[in-house]
Amino acid sequence: ELPPKVKNILLLDSEGKRVAAKYYTDDWPTNTAKQAFERTVFTKTQKTNARTEVEVIALENNIIVYKFVQDLHFFVTGGEEENELILASVLEGLFDAVNLLLRGNVDKREALDNLDLIFLCFDEIIDGGIVLETDANVIAAKAGINSADPNAPLSEQTISQAFATAREHFARSLLK
Amino acid sequence: MAQPLVKKDDDHDDELEYSPFMGIEKGAVLQEARVFNDPQLDPRKCSQVITKLLYLLNQGESFTKVEATEVFFSVTKLFQSKDTGLRRMVYLIIKELSPSADEVIIVTSSLMKDMNSKIDMYRANAIRVLCRIIDGTLLTQIERYLKQAIVDKNPVVSSAALVSGLHMLKTNPEIVKRWSNEVQEAVQSRAALVQFHALALLHQIRQNDRLAVSKLVGTLTRGAVRSPLAQCLLIRYTSQIIRDMGNHSQSGERPFYDFLESCLRHKAEMVILEAARAITELDGVTSRELTPAITVLQLFLSSPKPVLRFAAVRTLNKVAMTHPMAVTNCNIDMESLISDQNRSIATLAITTLLKTGNESSVERLMKQITNFMSDIADEFKIVVVEAIRSLCLKFPLKYRSLMNFLSNILREEGGFEYKRAIVDSIVTIIRDIPDAKENGLLHLCEFIEDCEFTYLSTQILHFLGIEGPNTSDPSKYIRYIYNRVHLENATVRAAAVCTLAKFGFMVEALKPRITVLLKRCIYDSDDEVRDRATLFLSVLANDGLVDTDKDSKEFLFGSLEAPLVNLETSLKNYEPSEEAFDVDSVPKEVKSQPLADKKSKGKKPTGLGAPPPAPVSGFDAYERLLSSIPEFASFGKLFKSSPPVELTEAETEYSVNVVKHIFESHIVFQYNCTNTVPEQLLERVNVIVDASEAEEFSELSSKPLNSLPYDSPGQAFVAFEKPEGVSAVGKFSNTLTFIVKEVDQNTGEAEDDGVEDEYQLEDLEVVASDYMVNVGVSNFRNAWENMDPENELVDEYGLGPRESLAEAVKAVIETLGMQSCEGTETVASNARSHTCLLSGLYIGNVKVLVKAQFGMDSTKEIVMKLAVRADDPSVSDAIHAIVSCG
Known about the structure:
Chain A: Its main location: cytoplasm. The complex is a heterodimer. Chain A is of the alpha+beta class.
């Protein structure tokens, strides 16, 4: 097949543990296989500096582009024939959208507190391996259901406000 | 059950790691999911529970069928809520739960309602969810809405429908194909991503209609495609069309090349890369076509972005394999990448340079690599070592500096895999470049002086035992070997004893000294070492324990006929009794390996480390196998074994391939048979060979295979006699005969009675190149001049019109079965003439050298001038005969 394909998106913490991950192919059929892959990717990239520019590594017939911020490691994987700049544009779309959604406070704690937004963000970037959107503003708007977005519905109150309060409650309620 | 954690406040510095999901437990969350059934829905609470469910699934937790169904049903209740945030989460969890067909019914009406909602976000997501979960019948019901959605003015909705179409094309192609008018309209969309998705779908719909694809691409390459992603797609489609067209229009411009070339000036880097890559991958790309692509890639090499540098160096690395000359312009930029922070980039740069480097730059390059090696990981070092090995085989004259490099890195720190790669490379170089042998063996000797890996030490000692005695001064190795007896562990000591014995046996002059050394070993603290020493002393003294020289040789250099696993099993089963253990009772058949094991063997190790693979292959293994069969033992030294030739189609009941073993005046066909029918056991498997079309051959003997169980390969043999030293050719037809027995699948036992049956195999041909071994020479010019010019035989041949010179060169190398020397198998693209140097060993151990000069005229007609020099003039004749008859 010719259209560019993304095999998975990974968001790992500074110890390589999965914060969120989405796989679009059967290359890693079991959770054990997925975890093993995540472990390899994490250890092979751990020592590199991917904080200013998107970095890239070839691993097990895959091309993986990655970028780190605070204690979060973002990865996008494609096949070895894939155009790595397309993968990089997906990664940057994801990275910047998460940055917008978390209002610049991108770390593991914020990500876990707003995991719903992270999941929605993944959902808006890739659909079944196909690139759905790479523009961070559009992704963030769709995932955050931001009222600033003309596509967002108008309801009784501004949704973004509602979400802001929901987020605050969210963390605590999960702690109970 | 784990107690949920202590309540914490916002103390970031707390040691205990904070997570809102700490102590989360599936059972509890499923309980919480009951809030979905509340008559008064709390959207916020429901969203949180869905997030928890998604979290569990995302962490790899799985729900049972019952649990998933229960969650799914309660989730469907949430459609009552008007809260958009919650609805968004509902869509997400339905996709994750992937409900079964009968459950889907419950949500379809809700989703269809959302599909027609005024809220764009609802429409887009409802389409994506529906298309993910429904089947063909339901799809026809919503088809109308999907077609509308494709041309929806909101790009998000349009993209959702198009992407869903792409997914559904796999399951319901006939339905999706009906949407091509709408998709066609969407291709014109002003929204970048819609255009991309529409183009992808339209192409997929029409992919079997070449004309339509060609028209589509033709139109779009002229117009302005807005999205870089769509432009990348268009480039991919274009290269596919170019590929499909083949070389129909040989003269003049390649169609669509202009388009690819114009994309090199696109403002988006991803498009530039895509186009550059497409150009480098064109079939038979010319240097003129390559140049602009190489130029943009060269610019990328010095980009501050690692991804761009990586993309460029990766592409150039590939180009270097086929067009090394085209990449040499980038060598300066490439050299600066050797110190790149990103080690993937650095390694690719190094290996590219190794490919493009010419003979004169080898030394300088090695100097740079030496600095680079110390700070990269072992896995990258292995890639470099492998590149150096091929460089050495390409420039045999440079073996000294390359061998020195290898021996230097061998002395440095490194893990086992890395060390093994180096040792393997040295071994390969020793084998292929005779001049490098003595030097290489000494390097290996020095390495084992201080080697921490028992495995490598024993392997090297074994290799020394085989190669060492045939060198000009075998005595110089003795010190290194005997040192092992003093300094190493018992395993290595025992291996050293064997090696000493081999020297003693092969080199008469050393025998007395070796005997003295071995006598010292009989006081070793380890019993295995003592036993071996005693045994070999007896062999060397020829004191009657072993009868003849030949037996001693067989004993020292031969190998165990039975697989080690079988020996181990037999020994375990042996019960101590009056009767001694009989080695001959060990079954010799190789048992099939467990499946998992087979998979892991995907990449076969080479060189020293290669374990004996199940159906034996490789010259040494063949030699051992054949000499262990009494019927063939008298045939003398094996001259050549061909690669296996398949005699059956893939996926037939019985799969058979054949290896041709050539001896001085015999030929043995080794039929490797595999039974792929689990319900059958084959016995007395034999191959009946009809040699009526191979007059010079007469059948001598055959060795049937007694039993061929399912999936456990075995070998049958048939031997022929042929006139000595003559390269007799002919065609053989083969029939597999056997007795087939039914196997009970439950007990695994075969019935007693069998039925005779036969199975027709494909014909087999023995051709002239079967009598040629491709042995390289290190210095072709010297070798050529050292041969008597009197015996040179020159003739000219027309090779007819060909696609390219490269193809003609390849065909000639294949027909002759000779080794190309000094990299002359590579033809510069666009070259009009080329000289290829070949060397080989012809049956009777006659050294043959060939200079083949090729020329091509404007009509692609190719002529070849073939000059052959051989020690025996009749062989030169034979080579010409191969060409003129082939």
